[in-house]
Amino acid sequence: MKAGFYLLLYCATLHAQWVNLPIPGTPRTPDGKPNLSAPAPRTADGKPDLSGLWGVNPGNYGANIAADLKPEETQPWAADLVKQRSVNMGRDQPSAVGCLPHGPSVNTISFLMQKFIQTPNVLVILLEELNYRQIHLDGRALPKNPDPSFMGYSVGRWEGDTLVAESTGFKDSIWLDLAGHPITDSLRITERFHRLDFGHMEIAETIDDPKTFKRPFTVVIKLELVPDSEILEFVCAENEKDREHMVGKPSDPTPAAAKVAPAVLSRYVGSYEFAYPENPTVTGTYNITMSEGALFIDTEGKARTALIPVADTVLYWRDARLEFFEDSQGKVTHFVRVGSAGDLRYTRKPDRK
Amino acid sequence: MSFQIKTLRTVLFALLVSTPVPAQWFNQPDPRIPLTKDGKPDLTAKAPRAPDGHPDLSGVWIRREGESTPPRYNDKGLAFTLSWFMPKNAEIPLRPAAAAIFKEREARDGGGRPPERCLPYGVPSAMLPPDPFKIVQTPGLTLILYEEMVDFRQIFTDGRKHPKSPNPAWYGYSVGKWVGETFEVETVGFNDQAWLDGLGLPHSEELRLTERFQRPTTGHLQMEATIDDPKMYTKPWTFKIDFNVIPDADLIENVCENEKDAIHQVAK
Question: Does the ipTM exceed 0.85?
Answer without folding.
Answer: no
